[in-house]
Every structure is written in C-alpha cells, then in structure tokens.
Amino acid sequence: MDRYENDDDIVVYDAMSETANRLIGRYVSLSRSASTPQEKEEWMQQVLRVRDERRGIDPGDRAAMREHMDRWAAEYQRLES
Known about the structure:
The chain is mainly alpha-helical. The chain has helices at residues 9-32, 37-55, 62-80.
C-alpha cells in the first residue's frame, strides 16, 4: 500500500523534496568532513546529482516521485549505517 495514495501530488512532491534535502544535507556533511580535496569534490558531485535529479522530476509523475523517494531514502540509510 502506498502511504501517499490519498494525498495530492503536491504533498508527494513536497515529501520527495524533503527526502532529497535530507540526502543532500548528508552529502554536504560528508563533504565538510572529507580528508582530501578530491573526496570533498566527490561528495559535492553527489549533491549536484541529487539536486539535478530532483529538478528533473515532473511534479505530475507520481511514480517517478515515489521511485526517487525510495531510492534516496535507501541511499541515506546506507550512508547512516
């Protein structure tokens, strides 16, 4: 069951954006604690990747929003473990 099935697309888009923001924040944190300039740049590239992916999602494409939310949440969990 989709926990957002009864919500408007704007609610799903907002939840998706918040999921992306949480992941971006984690990448920024990792960038700030990087031990080399190269590592810092690699984390910042991840920030840009997620930002660009988020911008490219059609706010009316509920399936794409959910797919990205699930993927970004899994990425965040992987980084936290």
